[in-house]
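Reopening this ticket.

The earlier resolution said the output was attached, but the attachment link was broken on my side. Pasting everything inline this time so it's all in one place.
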Amino acid sequence: MAMSQAEIDTFLNGVHLARVATVRPNGRPHVAPVWYLWENGYFYFETARSAVKANNLRKNPNIAITVDVSEGGLRLRYVILEGQATLIENNEMVKKLTKRIYSRYVGVEALQTPTLQEMLNVDNLIVRVKPTKFMTMDQLSPTELAAL
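Inline output:
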């Protein structure tokens, strides 16, 4: 069953791992897991300026992103979105958004730990995607179907 926009927003605001797919210059796909932020219809994630995905997006801004959960195979839920990426390289904006992304996953207090402080000081950029297409699924488990 497809999700409504409100259901998509609720799902993407959960703390899940996303997988982003970019296209290498030779046409081969590259897929990488990322932490992300979904806000006001935009998908954000951070990456090193020298990362494969950043280099791919500089040459070809087309991107596909999957966020999914299977609850041990009992319920399949996913949002796949497609769009074009914009790279945000302003250091102040990058640090601000990176802190917001990281705090979703580890909490604000953990941002003070030496490891995360080191990660915040890496030469990163933010990838912003305004989706142009959504594909969704919220499939009930056999037990939930039987209860209907």
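Reporter confirms the inline version is readable. DSSP finds five helices and seven strands in the chain. Strands lie at 18-23, 29-34, 37-39, 42-48, 62-69, 76-88, 124-139.
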